[in-house]
Amino acid sequence: MSLSEKDVLKIAKLSRIRIKDDEVAYYQKELSSILDWVDMLQEVNTDDVQQMSSVVSETLPLREDQVMGGYKQDDILANAPKADYGCFIVPKVVE
Fold first, then answer.
1. Quick one: fold of 5-42?
2. pLDDT tens digits, residue range 46-71?
3. Could you tell me the sign of the dihedral formed by the alpha carbons of 69, 71, 75, 80, in that order?
């Protein structure tokens, strides 16, 4: 699959990536080769391949759930620069 310069510029605009005019040909070649590679992968028959969630066939060791410690709100808030009503006080970031 070959992308046109117009396609590359549209992809750059949608991706919010600024590319220079002299870089369009480079990205056109690179993106086209990526799409060719994806097309090649589409031809692979994966009907009899089992889905996997990890490439490692190990299981994580399980442990029994245990309650450790307890409610330490006062200890945690003691480290905060500012706290009030049991909450952290932070600067306003949204106007």
1. Histone, subunit A (1.10.20)
2. 898 888 877 787 888 898 888 887 77
3. positive
